[in-house]
Amino acid sequence: MDRLKSLKSMPNPFESTVVKDAWQQDTIDVPVIHQAQFQSCQRLIESVSQNGTTESLLIFGETGSGKTHLLRRLRAQLLDSENFNEGPTSSRALFIYMKLQTSPRMIWRALRRQFATDLLRSTSRKISQLETLLATRFAQELGISSDPIDWWLDFRQQHSSMDSLRDHISDLFEELNTNISYNLRVALTLLLMGHHRADAKAWLRGDMLPDAILEAMGLSSHQHEEVELEDEAKMCVLHLCSLAGRSTCFVICFDQIEALQQNINDRAGLSAFGNMVVTLYHNTTNLSLISCIQTTLQHELKEALHESDYQKLSAFGKNIFLQTLKWEDAFELVKARLQASHDLWELHKSDPSLGGLWPLSEAEVQKLCPIPARKLIWNCRELFEKARNKQVPIIPVEEFLRNSLNESLESCLADSNPAQTTEVLEHGLLQLEDFTTENWEVSKLEDLRDVDLLLSGKDGNIGVSFCNEASMNSLCRRLKRLRDQAKDKRFQKLAILRDPRIPITPTAKAANQYRKELLEKTSTNFLTPSLEAIAALDAIRKLLSDSKAGDLSLQGESIEPDKVKSWLLDNLPFELDDFLKDVLSAPMIYPPHYELVEKIAELVEDQYLLDLTTVANHLKESITTLQNCIDKHPQRFGLLDGKAKVVYQLVPENFKTIN
Q1: Do 47 and 251 contact (CB within 8 A), yes or no?
Q2: Calpha distance 377→384 (Å, rounded)
């Protein structure tokens, strides 16, 4: 009775079933599970480090078999152990983990962003992976025999003045004699100096920066123009890989490859992934490439790639398959979960007569095998509740999806960043058919570089262009090209989408003129979707990506994408519904104040609250004109009435939850 009373007050140790990504920390690991497969990953890394050639490995497994968990174990071994990369002669490894929740057309940009994000993470030595990479390479070139990181920390202290540090870092890069781009070298120098740090990180991620910031950093401002964005991102990744040299191995893990597909019959996403991996394979010598994919997609992946390319993806030995758990491994997993509960394990220690899996019945657990790890954990959750005379509440799929979407909406709104708006819009709209009732087909016109997507429906075709350049010079050139491309007969309307947090400055006269010509002389909509609409699209694309990868799990079972799609058709957030109607509607008749909107936005962007009279005097406009303009754009501005009217820029509220 006392034991039952104690059990009822304890948390269920089988609550969590899904490892969200390889960086997750609070995860129970059982090394004997999939030990052979893990050792194959270790041998892959050892082979690359010893032989100086890039190798690639494919891991297959059904949903819930532990693919992401295996990658998390690998990351923990490489980066979290106390002896991480110690010693001047040891093989060093850097870890990159990428969920492929992106558009196939932006796959290199997504990889560049993930490279930067993960390289800037701190290691157990309290410096970033990027600093570890550079310190190792510098020490190697200088013949330093002591620990590279200790040497680097001493080096920074010895050259504490900014000018001295800049000059010595420049000398170190000269010693490397690597063929990296000028902009990458400048950005890395700024990061090592701690100067313009936030902007240097943004550039490394591939964010589009304003001309003034690029100039202050000393970077070439022609970025994003002469070279295609994907090519620029590819070169940045390859240069970072070459910068590491043979002494450091990059372990790059790809997960949720299924998210690249528009639908189950789509091969373009898988082909883009294969092409990227093959490019990395041919152009580097220090990468351990590990790709995880569902077993059911093995045939589709083979069909999407040339035979020789598929062979390169699995060039290191045979493909790895994660099998369902047999009784021995299942026993160890359940035992580890129970041991992780301090109070529960104290009961075990106080009474040796209790069975190894108490309060669960070993016979009941054994009956479940063989079984995927995720399903096992869910069943054990039910058995644990049964042992204390309770039941796991059964959540209907509709309620689970509603809760998941609401949680994701809040998260995406909080994390919303204008630098990622283009990726959110493109990847989200690529899945348009998954959450709208109309039969829209989404494609790309390869010969029109600035028309990013073509939406084809029963009423004609719509060209879509994502114009989120922060550089007014880059935006000007793009709008000029779009003015000519808008005459293309393959679409009847052009929708230009721009993040509302990046106003077109009044001083950008040429850009404003080209926009004016587009609006007045062509069938063009210029749309600034609300931040809530962008966040809603982001949340939905992630929900769909998780479902395609089998990571949207309820009661131990994956929710199929078709079920998610069916639910979304009836539960689309109204912010997104309004945005889609704007994109898919006929061109609007623009009032004469569309330029005034951008002028007001620029004024209130930094000051948040401004007296309307001050705005009127600054812009040389009447109070009435300003008030009419603000009233017609409630998604961007608000007006406080009082003795003095005050205009403010809207900050998105929390979403109204979907009921």
Answers
A1: no
A2: 10
The answer to whether 54 and 286 have CB atoms below 8 angstroms apart is yes
CA separation for the pair 529, 55 (Å, rounded) = 43
pLDDT digits (tens, 9 = 90+) for 538-559: 999 999 999 999 999 999 999 9
Task: Judge whether 35-315 and 594-649 match in fold.
Answer: no
Phi, psi values for residue 157, rounded to 5°: -70, -35
Token digits of residue 512: 């404003």
- Measured CA to CA, the distance from residue 652 to residue 543 in angstroms comes to 21
Which pLDDT score is estimated for 86?
46
Structure confidence at residue 328 as a pLDDT band (50, 70, 90): very high
**What are 282-285's contacts with CB under 8 Å, separation 24+?**
283/238, 284/54, 284/238, 284/241, 284/242, 284/250, 285/52, 285/53, 285/54, 285/246
- The separation between the first and the last C-alpha atoms of the chain, rounded to the nearest angstrom, is 42
186: amino acid identity, one letter = V
Encoding tokens for residue 158? 């010895």
Angle formed by the axes of helices 531-548 and 561-570, nearest 10°: 150
CB atoms within 10 A of CB 498: 23
| Architecture of domain 594-649 in this structure | Orthogonal Bundle (1.10)
pLDDT in tens, 513-524: 999 999 988 999
Question: In angstroms, rounded to a whole number, what is the distance separating the alpha carbons of residues 462 and 584?
Answer: 7
With H, G, I as helix, E, B as strand and everything else as coil, classify residue 60.
Answer: strand
Cα–Cα distance for residue pair 363/360, rounded to 1 Å: 9
Query: Two tokens at 16?
Result: 């969590």
The DSSP string of 139-175 is HHHHT--S-HHHHHHHHHHHT-SHHHHHHHHHHHHHH
Boundaries of every domain in the chain: 2-17+325-387, 35-315, 402-584, 594-649
- Residues 383 and 364: beta-carbon distance below 8 Å: yes
Angle at 554 between CA 553 and CA 556, to 5 degrees: 80
The least confident of 28-37, 52-61, 200-209, 260-269 is 260-269
On the question of a cis peptide bond just before residue 587, with omega within 30 degrees of 0, the verdict is no
- Are the beta carbons of 103 and 427 closer than 8 angstroms? yes
DSSP string, 504-569: PPTT-HHHHHHHHHHHHHSSEEEE---HHHHHHHHHHHHHHHHHHTT--EETTEEPPHHHHHHHHH
Name the one residue in this structure whose structure tokens are 């497969």.
37
B/e letters for 407-437, b = 16+ CB within 10 Å, e = fewer, are ebbeebbeebebbbbbbbbbbbbbbbebbbe
The span from the CA of 49 to the CA of 451, in Å, is 43
Q: Which amino acid is at 496?
A: I
pTM of the full predicted structure? 0.88
* Cβ contact 81:140 at 8 Å: no
Residue with tokens 């936005």: 601
User: What is the gyration radius of the CA atoms in the chain, in angstroms?
Assistant: 28
Within 167-267, strands assigned E span 248-255
Which of 264, 200, 315, 254 shows the shortest CA–CA distance to 67? Answer: 254
Contacts of 410 (CB under 8 A, 6+ apart): 654, 655
In 3-state terms, what secondary structure has residue 463?
strand
The hierarchical CATH code for the domain 35-315 is 3.40.50.300
Q: How far apart are CA 372 and CA 481, in angstroms?
A: 53
